[in-house]
Each structure stands twice: as C-alpha cells, then as structure tokens.
Design brief:
globular; single chain; 7-stranded mixed sheet; two-stranded antiparallel sheet; Spore Coat Polysaccharide Biosynthesis Protein SpsA, Chain A; alpha/beta
Length: 203
C-alpha cells in the first residue's frame, strides 16, 4: 500500500499563529510530521511525503505545490493499488490506530476529524477522488457511494484529533507521547486547571 503524508513545508499550521511564531510553527510541524512518519512505519508501511517545497527527510519525498486535492487526485488516478493519505499533524496517532485504518478491505476507509474533515483515508476504488474542502468526510462518503464502492468509517480518537488549532494543544499535552508534546513543554506550554477544566498556558 502506498502511504502519502501531505505536508505544507512552505507555511505549515497557520492556524497556530496566535500561539507560535513562524519559526516555531515550522519546527513544531516538522516534529509532528516525523512522528507520523515513524508511526506509519510502526504500522508496517513505508511513508512518502507529499510536500509543497523540498525538505530533508529519511523517506521518499514528492514535491507538488498545487492544491492538496489536485495533487492527491493525480496520484490516485495513476495508482495501480490502494493508496492511503495520512495527514502530517496527527500527533496523537499510534501504530495501532493506523492499523484500524489500514486493515479493513472496504473500497474506501475514512478516519474523520472532529471538525468534519478527513484526517486519514485508504482508497481502493480506482474511480474515487478526494475533495478536502469544507466537511470533506461527508463529501468523501458521497463520492464513494457514487462510485458504487463500499465505505467503512474508523472510530478513533487518536486519528480524529489533528493538531492545527490552539485548543488542540491541550489534547496533545493530555494524551500525547514522544517528541511533539515534549517540544511543547520545552517551549513553555503546560496544562493548568481552571474551574475544573484544563487549559493551556505558556510560561
């Protein structure tokens, strides 16, 4: 199975701008990307980065600065077998969680995000195409149905949380392991309980 990990190497994680400056965003995004690369390998597959600008990495890198949907659809159209797409900001992902995505034999397997997007998928139907705009999870279900393909949804908290908003940092500090939460703590972020609810503060 070909496993693509899209990564905006030009200006990553722009929605974290309120809490991280541009250099911090690039560094943090790279740490999360490496976590995903390692996790894909732990699930038994070799990842391939799909990036907007060339980066140094210990895995194959494909540069394509077109919109994500266009770049992925060209690869789907040329594929001779199943293709997985796993977003680079899934810093809570584990090999076991990715296993629940890779194992089903459905024509389309979807891991929806909490906000209605598609955080990861496996496409086995050669006519399926992606559209990552808006509530892409529902869009992708409809697309698969139009292809007369079978669809399976993965119910996974660790694949549903993508770290792209300031509030998502709380989930990473609460539930994450490894370099990404360690990076946040080294940068001064920590959890504070206020009125019975955890919030993220920065020293």
């Amino acid at each position: 199975m070909r496993v693509l990990v899209p990564f905006d190497s030009r200006d990553p994680n722009t929605r974290l701008s309120p809490v991280l400056d541009v250099d911090e965003r690039r560094e943090f995004a790279t740490v999360m990307r490496e976590h995903v690369v390692t996790t894909v390998r732990g699930a038994g597959h070799e990842p391939e980065l799909l990036v907007t600008e060339s980066v140094e990495a210990d895995c194959p890198v494909r540069v394509d600065d077109r919109p994500l949907s266009v770049a992925v659809n060209d690869l789907l159209a040329a594929a001779s077998g199943p293709v997985a797409v796993v977003m680079a900001d899934l810093a809570l992902a584990t090999a076991d969680a990715l296993g629940t995505l890779f194992e089903p034999a459905a024509d389309l397997v979807l891991a929806p995000g909490l906000g209605g997007g598609t955080n990861a998928l496996v496409a086995r139907h050669r006519d399926f195409r992606v559209d990552y705009h808006g509530d892409s999870y529902r869009t992708h279900r409809r697309e698969a149905e139009q292809c007369a393909g079978s669809v399976e949804t993965v119910d996974s908290f660790r694949l549903a949380v993508d770290i792209d908003e300031p509030d998502d940092l709380r989930e990473l500090l609460l539930h994450g392991h490894g370099d990404a939460p360690s990076w946040l703590r080294a940068a001064g972020f920590e959890l504070e309980t206020t009125a019975g609810r955890c919030v993220v503060v920065r020293d």
